[in-house]
Specification:
This protein has 301 residues and is of the alpha/beta class. It folds into two domains: 143 residues, 3-Layer(aba) Sandwich (Rossmann fold); 137 residues, 3-Layer(aba) Sandwich (Isopropylmalate Dehydrogenase). The two termini are 21 Å apart. The structure holds ligand LANB7ZPL.
Length: 301
């Protein structure tokens, strides 16, 4: 049973090493993470980025850079394309976002020619380990799908359930959240939440239990749910939080990291290979956790 990132790292050690290509690796936290992943036997890395900067940063952190292949590239778009291409050519098992905007690396991932599309919807899944919540919490989608429609939300749930299953959460409870726990026709998030719950009951969304609408309080606090008189197996016990749109997800993600000091990881699912994707501002530990998560996902293919 996986209780936190220590368990994720241990499992990744058993399944690794895999090879990562890093898009714009000229970043101290990224180098710390790939160096640690290499030491732990989780992953090897091909570092795409500004070679001079990579070498200088490596010296600062006492990293033996000779153990890593470097592809010298200063341009963010070209660096992202080269890193993605290493995966599509089979030279790496997964690609990782380094010091580059999410939109730039995703454009390369979605490229018709060198990209990693499968025909399925791609979505971001963030994993959090919080002192204030008794189990791992998955949040989706904080980084990719801007304002998903009902069908897209269904696929976003399916992608998150796939990650949950890789983390040994057999029948994850999915809370579809909005601003309130009652259906209000003026609030599309609540209407979609009810429909997603119905789709799950009809067997159209499998491998999980979907409930909604919930407000965040009654999705993750049994006390709050009781106080509001909400009785539902998902209430207060969510494994996965589906947010209605990207701003809600991104703000929630950064609140958990910066205000609640959560440990975290992030990955894009639905592509031919995992795309390890954290915020540029996330810690080296978050990036290492994400590499470990990517290794688990790559081993599940
Ligand atoms: C998973 C968060 C994606 C994000 O917001 O990245 P940046 O902070 O690097 O823009």
């Amino acid at each position: 049973m996986i209780r936190g990132f220590k368990d994720v790292l241990n499992l990744a050690k058993k399944k690794g090493p895999k090879t990562i290509s890093v898009a714009m690796a000229n970043d101290k936290e990224v180098l710390l993470a790939v160096n640690e992943a290499k030491k732990l036997g989780i992953a090897d890395a091909i570092l795409v980025g500004d070679k001079d900067e990579i070498v200088n940063l490596a010296k600062e952190i006492d990293m033996d850079i000779d153990q890593f292949e470097i592809v010298d590239e200063k341009d963010l778009k070209e660096g992202s394309r080269k890193a993605v291409q290493l995966v599509s050519e089979g030279k790496a098992h997964m690609v990782m976002k380094g010091l580059v905007d999410t939109s730039i690396i995703l454009k390369a991932v979605l490229d018709e020619e060198i990209g990693l599309r499968t025909g399925k919807l791609l979505s971001h899944v963030a994993v959090f380990d919080l002192e204030t919540y008794e189990k791992i919490l998955l949040v989706t989608d904080a980084a990719m799908n801007i304002a998903p429609n009902l069908e897209q939300k269904k696929q976003i749930i399916e992608n998150a359930v796939y990650v949950a299953h890789s983390l040994d959460i057999e029948e994850p409870k999915v809370a579809v959240v909005g601003a309130k726990e009652k259906v209000n026709p003026k609030m599309p998030a609540t209407v979609d939440a009810q429909k997603l719950e119905e789709m799950n009951k009809k067997g159209e969304i499998k491998g999980c239990m979907v409930g909604g609408p919930f407000a965040l309080d009654n999705a993750i606090s049994k006390e709050a749910a009781k106080h509001k008189g909400i009785e539902h197996p998902v209430a207060g016990d969510a494994d996965i939080i589906l947010v209605p749109y990207i701003e809600a997800g991104n703000i929630f993600y950064k609140s958990l990291v910066f205000l609640a000091k959560a440990e975290n990881a992030g990955v894009i699912v639905g592509a031919k290979a995992p795309v390890i994707l954290t915020s540029r501002a996330d810690s080296d530990k978050a990036k290492l956790n994400s590499i470990a998560l990517g290794v688990l996902m790559a081993s599940n293919k």
